[in-house]
Amino acid sequence: MHCPVCDSDMRSRSLLSHYSFKPFRVCPDCHAKYTTDPKTRRRQIPIVILALLSLGLTFVVHSKGLGWLLPAVVSYIVLWAYVGYVLSKMTYVRYTKQDR
After folding, report:
1. Residue pair 33/95 in contact by the 8 Å Cβ criterion
2. By the 8 A CB rule, do 35 and 93 touch?
3. Which of 25, 33, 64, 82 has the least C-beta neighbours within 10 A?
4. How many Cβ atoms are within 10 Å of 13's Cβ, its own excluded?
């Protein structure tokens, strides 16, 4: 994870947690605001859909029986594989007010 402004490595640093509910983060070195790019935000939509599907299948396993266990397990595998893909493709850009 590198700052899009100063290119500092921020993996082992505190990312100013009081910004956690804001649409941006702040670099601990240069104090520039940054956010994820629009493609990354669009890739997050299927995560919500897959998570709801997986949760629904978990409830179906509980109510209908173990016949639904395999689809539930497969849905969780697909969910976590897609989360890994999205995290590997995540990029950061400088935050502007238009990014909302």
Report:
1. yes
2. yes
3. 64
4. 13
Q: Kindly list the strands in the beta sheet with 33-36, ordered across the sheet, starting from the edge strand earlier in the chain.
A: 25-26, 33-36, 92-94
- Copy the structure tokens of residue 68: 């639904």
* Mean pLDDT for back-to-back runs of 10 residues, the chain (100 residues): 78 54 80 86 93 96 94 96 92 76
**DSSP state at residue 57:** H
Rounded CA gap, 21 and 82, in Å?
24
Q: Helix 45-64 crosses helix 69-89 at what angle (to 10 degrees)? A: 160
Token match 């890739």: residue? 43
Residue 91 region by backbone torsions, left for phi larger than 0, else alpha for psi between -120 and 50, else beta: beta
Beta strands 33-36 and 25-26 are antiparallel
